[in-house]
Amino acid sequence: MSILEISNLSLSFGGVKALQDVSFRVPENTITTIIGPNGAGKTSLFNCISGFYKPQQGNIRYQGQPLPGSIKPPRRAALGLARTFQNIALFRGMTVLDNIKLGAHVHMKSGLLSALAYFGPARREETAVRQEVEERIIDFLEIDHIRRQPVASLPYGLQKRVELARALAMKPQVLMLDEPVAGMNREEKEDMARFILDIREEWGITVLMVEHDMGMVMDISDHIAVLNFGQVITEGVPADVQNNPEVIKAYLGNSDIDSLRRKLNPEGEVA
Amino acid sequence: MRIGDAKQSYEADEAIWTSSTQKLWLGFFLLILMVFPFAVDSYLLYLGCLVGIAVISTTGLNILTGFTGLISLGQAGFMGVGAYTVAWLSINTGLPFPITLVLAGLMAAAVGILVGLPSLRVKGLYLAIATLAASVFLHFIFAEWEPVTGGMGGLSLEPAHLFGLTFQSDFMMYFIIVPLAVLMVLAARNVFRTRIGRAFIAIRDRDISAEILGINLLRYKLMSFALSSFYAGVAGGLFAYFYRVVTPESFPLSMSIFYLAAVIVGGMGNLLGGILGAAFMTLVPEALKLLTAALTPFYPNAPVFMSPMLEIIFGGLIVGFLIFEPHGLAEIWHRIRRFFRLWPFRN
């Protein structure tokens, strides 16, 4: 059963064809990864799914239902699509705790009047969200020591983790991660890989990610789709994908297959 | 010195004032506000009322500009809407002040929503120009819609009344203005403890990720405009009761700039900053006048030299604050608090 089905998606900006006839599926409760060289259209695809770009052709089905362009990003968030960004998009002036609480926004209902009085529903709801954020998310991602700090003061790796925490607070069905370990050191990468695996296993959330770190991609993905020049070259399990000559050519552009194969398959090593 | 806090529940941890020292100081401050009108002369009382009105309006503008990141030059216009609503209602219906003030706020909020509509498309300075246009338009209506606004002559109204009580003197008005200011600042603080306040800040910091989190930008921007103009409308209504005359010239464009300056000098996105900024902007020009008067016995020529200098000194003070304290007066306060947190030890 696929939770997300992309069929024949095409997107162009003027003469630039960002996506051409892209079709692939994201099986439910898997870690599915989109890989491909720079400019292959990975982030454009993410932007189509989260509703920032309207594809000219093709359609996206989410949980069996069509997801037309008329469903705007805030509505998609309420439907259970959460994402993080390649260059961290946190609210820098706010504390870690407030950033994460913002993730729960779509699940909260209290209106302006009860907010002004901070009485009744607003108070109960805020306390409940605080408890849930503390006990389920902050604990899980091991960021309790920084909860009161403004995000701007945190190192990069922790900021990425806070962004993941915020996405988890949305209680998503599908979590889209745009380069979750880019720029991290080895230890941070290993932590992040462990969190992603736990999110799939313990929380039952389908993960769709874009990542360049081949070691991690091959290690934790259940399903991989390869994009090049806006087209899907192949999709399948990691073992098939990393031996596919098309993929090797797309990545490295020459014919020395063996040395390239070694690069794509760093023998289980992360980083 | 405070060593730490041991909270037992999340609710206790989410409180605004978490330590007993804070509560003690707060009680002390409220006591001073209560005793103030009995202890001072009419001039200081008059200034106290002005600061109270300015605090309400500045807090409103702070919600919009400081917290939501939407620059507005329409604050004086929204205050005008509130003032004219109060004047018109008290002349034509004789309703008591709590009702007229709420209606003034709602009227201003409705106008604020209309003015806020372009904010989905235009941001920053462009939005400032759009609100500027709106305030010019409002000024035009105040001056020309004679049957309702009384044209250039404006409207004169009776003092505020409730249950047979008339609030004629500054002393009486103080007891409307200041409690209302305290309540409205507290309400604003509450908003920023909830999802709505967080959504405002999210829009200011990064509107694309706000959308990703399910925040409807137009809805929350308009809500911010409505809330901010509600505060302006109430402040304008109090202004009408305080001076008991409302003319188109009561709310010039320079007043909008005054409030924007108060927000910036006090500290954008900081409610305490709004209060300090409002007090600074209202009191410093007066303090400079007092200084001139105090100098006169020693330098008989002081008024001649000082009066043209006042504006320059005032402007210089604002520029100085922007350079040396870009986070505003509130930051000075926070620094003092940090210092005393571990006092007498160094931190």
UniProtKB/TrEMBL annotation, chain A:
Keywords: ATP-binding, Nucleotide-binding, Transport. GO terms for molecular function: ATP binding; ATP hydrolysis activity. It comes from the Bacteria. InterPro entries: AAA+_ATPase, ABC_AA/LPS_Transport, ABC_transporter-like_ATP-bd, BCA_ABC_TP_C, P-loop_NTPase. Gene3D superfamilies: P-loop containing nucleotide triphosphate hydrolases. GO terms for cellular component: plasma membrane. The keyword Nucleotide-binding applies. Signal peptide: none annotated. Residues 4-254 form the ABC transporter domain. Pfam families: ABC_tran, BCA_ABC_TP_C. PANTHER family: ABC TRANSPORTER ATP-BINDING PROTEIN, CONSERVED COMPONENT OF ABC TRANSPORTER FOR NATURAL AMINO ACIDS-RELATED. This is ABC transporter related protein. It comes from Marinobacter algicola DG893. The lineage of its organism: Bacteria, Pseudomonadati, Pseudomonadota, Gammaproteobacteria, Pseudomonadales.
UniProtKB/TrEMBL annotation, chain B:
It is found in: Cell inner membrane. GO terms for cellular component: plasma membrane. Keywords: Cell membrane, Membrane, Transmembrane, Transmembrane helix. The chain crosses the membrane at residues 21-39, 45-64, 71-91, 97-117, 124-142, 171-192, 222-243, 255-280, 312-333. It holds the Pfam family BPD_transp_2. It is a multi-pass membrane protein. InterPro entries: ABC_transp_permease, LivM-like. GO terms for molecular function: branched-chain amino acid transmembrane transporter activity. This is Inner-membrane translocator.
